């Protein structure tokens, strides 16, 4: 059965600005989440803790993001979503300033829980907010722009934070992240229109979402994608060093190409998500699987490694956009609830992927995590091609899909 091609509408400048303000927010959030990785050694030394303990600042953030994702939608009721977004950005600013100023490890961890709440809340509400800004027909395009901030953060933040930390100290890096959060807050205050709630999310509605087949498929695919991606990416460098025979100088361009390609993947995914969701979704994971097998089989050729790394990056950049759009189409009447479930699954997948990768490396060697990635990718592609693209629920209230004024 062929998929219906939804007609895209031209956006006025005000809509572009409102969506881009969300892009800056996603950039500030992901940059703040990953920041401890870039300054781990000096931060640990200054606080008088081990590097392993300091690294828990990232783990704790991810845990609270997973908890907050479905919870925020349950407790915010019908409060204007613009006010919620502004409050979440304020948490980003407060968290980073608190970390920059504290000398107490426990205070640092408490501040990072605030960041986790902000991440969980923002990305749980992102799909619903974008739909209210641009309509359900352009959800893929809108989410691709928002997720470009996430991809840009993955590419830019670690290197920039390292440079700032080396030049001015690790605390300055957190103050810079606070500045990014403040910029995102100001842009949303100026550019984001009022986004009245289309409805409140209840616990029963969350449970009801799990009864929808397309929602379950989206959650399973999201678990496979994020778990498999993190499993392979976490141990990409050790694999390239041990099996590919590459040194740090040669690995850096590979990771840069992968990061830039993920930015491209986020940028182009919206077109396919809006016009050919199922085919684009399946192709994304097929490309990820093939690229991973390519990295495993042609590591002796440096140009081949660069090419497959680029394909890998495009797929991991497109994956979140495709998955979020699939989930939105599966439950357009419960966008905030399904967004919360989706983000909770993401955080669980990331945790599971990191654990599986560590076990695989210790037991079978550095190639094993990439085999896990390829297997997850092919399973996700097979699952998608056996499904029809989700149809928008006919009983969806018009207010849930109408763009905000």
Automatic annotation (TrEMBL):
Pfam family, one: MFS_1
GO CC aspect terms: plasma membrane
Keyword check for Cell membrane: yes
CDD domains to which the protein is assigned, alphabetical: MFS_NepI_like (cd17324)
InterPro entries: MFS, MFS_dom, MFS_Efflux_Transporters, MFS_trans_sf
Annotated SUPFAM superfamilies: MFS general substrate transporter
Keywords (A to Z) from UniProt: Cell membrane, Membrane, Transmembrane, Transmembrane helix
Domain of life: Bacteria
UniProt-listed Gene3D superfamilies: MFS general substrate transporter like domains (1.20.1250.20)
Residue intervals of the Major facilitator superfamily (MFS) profile domain: 18-392
GO MF annotation list: transmembrane transporter activity
Main localization (coarse): membrane
Membrane topology: Multi-pass membrane protein
Compartment(s): Cell membrane
Annotated TM spans: 12-32, 52-76, 83-103, 109-133, 145-164, 170-195, 215-236, 248-273, 280-298, 304-326, 338-361, 367-385
Name of protein: Major facilitator superfamily (MFS) profile domain-containing protein
Native organism: Devosia geojensis
């Amino acid at each position: 059965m062929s998929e219906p091609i939804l007609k895209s509408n031209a956006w006025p400048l005000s809509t572009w600005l409102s969506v881009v303000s969300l892009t800056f927010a996603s950039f500030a959030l992901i940059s703040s989440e990953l920041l401890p990785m870039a300054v781990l050694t000096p931060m640990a030394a200054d606080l008088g803790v081990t590097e392993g303990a300091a690294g828990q600042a990232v783990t704790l953030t991810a845990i609270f993001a997973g908890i907050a994702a479905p919870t925020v939608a349950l407790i915010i009721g019908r409060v204007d979503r613009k006010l919620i977004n502004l409050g979440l950005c304020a948490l980003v600013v407060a968290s980073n300033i608190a970390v920059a100023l504290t000398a107490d490890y426990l205070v640092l961890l408490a501040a990072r829980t605030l960041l986790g709440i902000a991440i969980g809340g923002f990305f749980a509400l992102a799909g619903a907010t974008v739909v209210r800004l641009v309509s359900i027909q352009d959800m893929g395009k809108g989410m691709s722009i928002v997720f470009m901030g996430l991809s840009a953060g993955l590419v830019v933040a670690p290197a920039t934070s390292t440079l700032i930390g080396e030049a001015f100290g690790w605390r300055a890096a957190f103050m810079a992240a606070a500045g990014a959060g403040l910029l995102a807050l100001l842009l949303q205050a100026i550019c984001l229109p009022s986004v009245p709630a289309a409805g409140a999310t209840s616990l029963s509605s969350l449970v009801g979402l799990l009864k929808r087949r397309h929602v379950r498929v989206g959650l399973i695919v999201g678990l496979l994608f994020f778990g498999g991606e993190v499993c392979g990416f976490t141990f990409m460098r050790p694999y390239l060093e041990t099996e590919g025979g590459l040194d740090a100088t040669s690995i850096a361009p590979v990771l840069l190409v992968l990061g830039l390609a993920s930015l491209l993947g986020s940028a182009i995914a919206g077109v396919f998500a809006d016009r050919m969701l199922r085919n684009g979704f399946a192709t994304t994971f097929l490309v990820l699987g093939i690229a991973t097998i390519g990295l495993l089989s042609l590591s002796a050729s440096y140009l081949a490694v660069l090419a497959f790394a680029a394909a890998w990056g495009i797929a991991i950049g497109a994956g979140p956009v495709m998955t979020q759009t699939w989930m939105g189409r599966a439950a357009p009447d419960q966008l905030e609830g399904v967004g919360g479930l989706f983000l909770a699954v993401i955080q669980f997948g990331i945790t599971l992927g990191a654990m599986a990768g560590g076990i695989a490396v210790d037991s079978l060697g550095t190639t094993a995590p990439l085999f896990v990635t390829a297997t997850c990718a092919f399973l996700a592609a097979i699952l998608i091609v056996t499904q029809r693209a989700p149809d928008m629920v006919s009983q969806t209230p018009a207010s849930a899909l109408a763009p905000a004024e």
